[in-house]
Design brief:
11% strand, alpha+beta, two-stranded parallel ribbon, Ribosomal Protein S5, domain 2
Length: 93
């Protein structure tokens, strides 16, 4: 199982982005062995509140996200292939 971490310039300068990624990395290090699915890759995207969030709250957020990702989908995937071209009327010019 692999994890990647990203933070855009929108959340702040390099120091803020690196701090956010470090916090996410530690949260992932603590929770992925317990809640991650083997063979899956995870991408953690830092948000503006990642740096300000208290540690327990950040762990709760990451834990909730991993639990939600581990749940099987309740609805089957759509079989639609895009726009329905058969129902469109062809216009003659």
């Amino acid at each position: 199982m692999r994890a990647g971490f990203t933070a855009t310039k929108k959340i702040g300068g390099a120091v803020v982005r690196n701090r956010a990624k470090r916090r996410l990395r530690e949260a992932a290090r603590a929770l992925l062995p317990l809640l991650g699915q083997p063979g899956h890759d995870y991408v953690f995207i830092a948000r503006a509140t990642t740096v300000e969030r208290d540690w327990a709250g950040l762990l709760d957020d990451v834990k909730a996200a991993l639990i939600r990702l581990a749940r099987p989908k309740t609805t089957p995937p759509s079989t639609a292939t895009g726009t329905d071209t058969a129902s469109r009327e062809k216009t003659v010019r």
